[in-house]
Amino acid sequence: MPSYKAPLRDTRFILHDVLRVASYNNLAGFAEATPDVIDAVLEAGAQIAEEVLAPLNQVGDREGCHIADGVVTTPTGFREAYKTWVEGGWTGLTCDADYGGQGLPFVVGFAVNEMMSSANMAFAMYPGLSHGAYEAIHQHGTQAQKDMYLPNLVSGIWTGTMNLTEPHCGTDLGLMRTKAEPQGDGTYKITGTKIFISAGEHDMSENIIHLVLAKIVGGPEGIKGVSLFIVPKYLVGDDGKPGSRNTLKAGSIEHKMGIAGNATCVMNYDGAVGFLVGEEHKGMRAMFTMMNAARLGVGLQGLSQSEVAYQNALIYAKDRLQGRAISGTKAPEKPADPIIVHPDVRRMLMNAKAFNEGGRAFALWTGLKIDLAHRDADPATRELADDLVALVTPVVKGYLTDKGFEMASNAMQCLGGHGYIREWGLEQFVRDSRIAMIYEGANGIQALDLVGRKLAQNGGRAVMAFFAELDKWTGDRVGHPTLGAHAQALGEAVERLRKATFWFMQNAMANPDNAGAGSNDYLHLFGLVALGYMWGQMAEVAAEKLANGGAGDAFYEAKLITARHFIERVLPESAVHLARVEAGAATLMALPAEAF
Amino acid sequence: MPSYKAPLRDTRFILHDVLRVASYNNLAGFAEATPDVIDAVLEAGAQIAEEVLAPLNQVGDREGCHIADGVVTTPTGFREAYKTWVEGGWTGLTCDADYGGQGLPFVVGFAVNEMMSSANMAFAMYPGLSHGAYEAIHQHGTQAQKDMYLPNLVSGIWTGTMNLTEPHCGTDLGLMRTKAEPQGDGTYKITGTKIFISAGEHDMSENIIHLVLAKIVGGPEGIKGVSLFIVPKYLVGDDGKPGSRNTLKAGSIEHKMGIAGNATCVMNYDGAVGFLVGEEHKGMRAMFTMMNAARLGVGLQGLSQSEVAYQNALIYAKDRLQGRAISGTKAPEKPADPIIVHPDVRRMLMNAKAFNEGGRAFALWTGLKIDLAHRDADPATRELADDLVALVTPVVKGYLTDKGFEMASNAMQCLGGHGYIREWGLEQFVRDSRIAMIYEGANGIQALDLVGRKLAQNGGRAVMAFFAELDKWTGDRVGHPTLGAHAQALGEAVERLRKATFWFMQNAMANPDNAGAGSNDYLHLFGLVALGYMWGQMAEVAAEKLANGGAGDAFYEAKLITARHFIERVLPESAVHLARVEAGAATLMALPAEAF
Hints:
By secondary structure, chain A is of the alpha+beta class. Chain A contains 18 helices and 11 strands. In chain A, about 55% of the residues lie in helices and about 10% in strands.
């Protein structure tokens, strides 16, 4: 059976030493988040992840969810685990204190999310979706709606969902058919079918607050006619308690490649009572609030599966005796050497280590920027942080999930035939991680969002700020005795990213397909630069620590070696991505569809 | 439900026009294999693959195999399909006519194998393993053994298996514990446990002929004491019929990520009667006969899953309406454009198309070389062909399976959320294809075989011959109006492969870890060059066809565009692989195991 240990030291290193979270103690919410408090939260989160959630991960996969007449049963132990989760106050960790939350920084919430997802991704999605619903109502709901729904979402007594997709439309929500009929009393009747609704129905909470996109009858065509509604499973009475059953029902649950422990439902709304969130026909704006938060969460899922898969591959690689090191026997007292002596096994492990730690730093860096965007006193700082979050959100989602899946698959490869056997658990990480590349906007959509929208927003202000930050970092360190080589290599990768950016400016106007053709490669090039930057910062701190009392600490020494690994063996991929961006759309678009 | 159409035109194009199989009609067995006969075989194979095997692929996945007291039940329809397969004479297609086979060239057998595996990989493994057993007995058995076992293996009335792996040893067979005790009458008693035995027990054949590796008691330690035995499920009587039950039994079947329709068994041998194949303690040599054939077959499996996944992604991409082309609406009469208008969807489809057709050509090129190695009258031609087969076998296995999985996953991505749902079938291709990277020697072992063994064999004769062939092809075409750019780019990739080869020569002596560290990248660099060479040849033929009466034929025009796609968007990866080879082992080997 696979195991999981939360990467506490690495998370602390990033939060305290690299991001220096304590230095933001002037920000609202950060004053309480002292290093001691953060460490206590991380340790408590680690404990529940390791001891409560991880042991249920295979159970969830094996049993799946079951439905009978619209009633969903979750796998054995999920109800009890959710209860434990709620009682620990985890659902409200980063939520507004006005509604019962703890108001801790997002950056801390991200760290806890990663642990939960590593331990049990299918389980973690239940509270994860609730948080999306919380965000949408918190930002776009009326005060009455907030008062009615938020306390119970924050406490976790109720859960929430996001309802976007319909059988014939996922990416292109303008095709939506679910309709909302105004009832004259301020409510609407919602009718339609939504599919792929994660946590759409289950047996863990008293009520489920569905956030549903629908078109108000008589409104504008297409995407401009979409509005967002609160459609509770049980209508909430004046006493704030779940009352009469709304006319909505889970029709079936999907049989999926993975995340079997999460109930992915077809939801049928049959004239269900709904309450408008925000303005009529402005549903997409509110939906994007949920979506952007969800996208970052999905990026964390990619990372999380790579991390837990890596941990188990590492255990196996240290334990499994097979063959002798080609450089000479390492364990003469044993019948064979542990396979971690083999360079090709280490290649897979080091790639995963470099990705996990670099990806974690990138995700937490982004989490901190969200906090700054929300809480900094200085409008310019808030704007810059908000720009960067918007810019990197598709990269966090797309890069961390593409690579998360790849690394999980490599980890499985380390186990040879055992990796393919269910009992060992590695193949579940591969299957579970695969969905993260698809939902909340398939990674192709992330790449288009990055290239087609985020680059150009506000005249390119965000990407220019990103380049400025990187140019300063590399420029300040070129020629530096320990960081010079890193700065040099990273600077070259930044140059490639800049070239790719300018290539789009020059070539996408004449032929927009040139933007689409290079978007995936651009996203990956961006991800490489981002992780290279994180590795530069981590190497710098590690070198300082080694020089200042930390001499001989294997943790810091490993940081320097892994940073070098990233620069020498991962970052060179940036050249291929640039070459492909510059190849443009020609060979992609040349064939008529029938000639494929 | 997914569908499958055998790629008949493409296969014919490669066999007849690119490889010009008809020009070898002076070789034994080839005279009968006229283009008409080959086409008839391909069409009949396509029919059974499409109509009999493909419809059972999801059934096999859903039902899996079941075991009760050592008796295995295969999924609904498998028995009947196997009967149809046997009755069609397919099991003996390339087998020796002396034992009832049809003696057709291997290159034709490869083409049929690909179709079978695309249609139903789990099913195709049953006859696939039999063929391995056939090969081992045919090459290493006594005449009496051949007479006893081959006719029924060729006819398919019996099936065969390969038994190598034990719980504590897979790659490192020297650790093997299964023992063989000589009985004085020329037979041995075999005792031990073998795991991961594909098709180890089932209900489709009258007898199962297990080929089992074991150590003769008192023999040399380690790999030098391993011998190969025939251990039939039913001992064969003097009448040639299955007689008394041997003391061997399937203990359990594995629950796997995929290929659920194939029974992967734990096999317990409890003093079972075994018959030595070949010489004592020379079992590995005989095993490699099976293994090399099996490795090429596994390479075809990787290709096959990419092909069928691509076909289904293509159908979806032409059918699914979502969004509008960024270059302007393409289907104004519809509510949205089919997603094949989107460059990023085409990126995934074109990459798969370039891989499938290039990989098919590479596999068939290798198949033809096997025929030449066996059948050519000229010893020098035989030696050269044999050298090349030995050299590229790990590349066919490793590259086609790594990429096959990647392409299957990309095909799944084209379907968005539907790709993750079992009913659509795409996720099964991903799961099924994943095993091909692992079994018959994990791809890391293939890479080591290539770099550590094949490159240096006979003083590098094989790789030098490969370079000579490529240098001639590119050299003859540099500056050519239609092929010059291809030759130029391919020549650069060949140069990178040569550099990597020399880098190993210079750096692996001093530190053997440098060979292991770069082996995976070297294998991929080799695969890129091989496919680039195939694409060059295909482009050349396509250009000739277009110039000589084929003008306007979309098939040939697509070949030219896809060749260009490969050169512009795939082959550039070769630079990264060289950079990684040249990075050496430093960052991989620096960390002590406990510092990971």
